[in-house]
Amino acid sequence: MTWLRRASIVGCLVAATTAVVFLPCVTYDFVDWDDPFYVSSNPTVLGGLSWHGICRAFTEVHMANWAPLTMLSYQADATLFGPQPWGFHLSNVILHSLTAAGLCACLRRMTGATAASAAAAILFALHPQRVESVAWISDRKDLLSGFFLVVSLVAYERHARKPTIANYACVTAAMTASLMSKSTTVVLPALLLLCDYWPLRRAAWPQRRAWEDHDGGRYPRRTLAALIIEKLPLLAIAAIFTVVTIRTHSADVSHVAATTVHGRIVNAWNNLAWYAEKAVFPVALHPMQQWQARDSTRGFVMLGVAGGLVAMAFAFRSRLAKTPAIAAVAWGAAWFVVASLTTLGLFSQVGVSPHADRYTYIPHMGLAVAVVWPAAAAGTLLQGTGAAYRGITRLYAVILTVAIACIAATESQLLLWKDSRSFFSGVLKVDPENVVALTGAGEDADFAGDYNRATMLLEKAVDSAPEVYPPAVAALASLYARLGRGDEALALCTWLSRIDKTGELAAAVEKSPEVRQLRQLKTLRPTPKAAEESHDSLAQDQFQKGMVAVKKRDWRAAILAFQDAVAIEPGWAAAHNNLGMSAIELGDRDTAFNAFQRAAELDPAQPDYAVNLTRTLLLLGRRAEARVTCEAASRLAPRDPEIRRLYASLLVD
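The structure assignment produced for this chain is given below.
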């Protein structure tokens, strides 16, 4: 039991080290990039585990992904820890730590190399590209999928050692759970076949290699055909999830830079080269990578480096043949490529990022092995030289330096995810022209009331690439409408209706109270007869006078005009609402409250009036009443993102 105790201690140390490094993110806030949709503004998730929530997790597609176990994990967090962000962050840290420990245990069982297994797990866990998956609550998908993939590897090792139906069922269940967390692990059958080559060495090759006797016969050998047939049930499951993924992705497939087969292959090669480069030089990392027109020069450079390493390995093959280093390098490189296939953009790309750190979560498991095993072999070779002590000391110094560098870079990268402001500003420091970050920073400035900065950022985002990122146009249109720049707002709304493929953004902007008022004013202007049929002509004149004052940001004149309009026609809900909005701009909260309350009473089916009343109640410190009115608004418009965000914030004590 000594070896088992030692392996357990090593696994616990790996998990503890990983947890300590990533623990600072437990104090971080949500970020306004997918977090509102998945968690912070999702009433179903914040309500905790329930039968209704479980049904929705299995029947709904979220952000073009069907990931029921991921959504259930969010609900479980809300039940255990409440709606605060720290609980969701803590679960991410725990999941990542368990995955690192599981990878260490799996490699230890397959290879018998405790130290090398621990080093590979630590290198994987602490690499700066893990930050995006761990610190971003919305990327729970990769963490859960990676955790269950490691579980499936452990179960497969047990099945390889003792093939039984029960052991195979465990592999199948773990794979299914991984796919229900994120479907990128459809390549798992191919990864298991790689494990049959090394380190399990189950494949019966015509010519045996020197390192093939290392396992001592623990794993029965089988022919390649038998090993492939063994994977057929897993391939069938992967095929089912592939079809499901294609159908869910078809509703939200972003622009793919290359349309021809050759162009997509070149683009995939560039993405793979980017992943390899950032694995070695993890600098300028951020999650909003954009499509860029690049040639494959960098890819050819990486290919040349890889070819040089292979040539060096061949030159020293007589000494390396005594160790599994060559097989580990080949296995790690193959694992990296195969695990990356679903994220290279060969067929489609969901989201605006052609490549991202989060896509490396599973591929880097293989790269870590490819790096560590040759280093371990180098240490073994040094032991047989005259300068053994000095050589091993230098090797350990290099390993320690790499570990410290990884930890320092990871801690620095973690600061990017502290809150929304740090997030968007951090991305813009690395990529000042990033249209997604410009839009997010603009919306954040708008929410904070810094309208000048919001206008500058959103206008820059729209000028950068509006056809690629319609949310920039939607945000600027909404801002223009609230600032009284009606003609510009309506022009952007028309533009948005042409470039928004799904129509959801355009519909959301058109439903906003400011744009509706602009549309209403535009339709009421043409004929006095229409005004007489809908509202008193004198009241309509005062309403138009108020809208002109709003456009000029003359809030006092607007208040007087809207007060005259409601005095002439007390039952005009829109006039009461506009009176409240003008009063809010002037800081007259009591007048605003009375106006919004009257508007909500006159038109209880209008969610915007209830939202305005909710915000005013919050300004007055009447939180309990605000929660009631916002709940009514959420019933009227359950899918409205602004209402969902507001309601979620009210659920937090």
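Interim note for the steering committee: Residues 207-216, 317-321, 523-534 have pLDDT under 50 and may be disordered. The chain has 34 helices and no strands.
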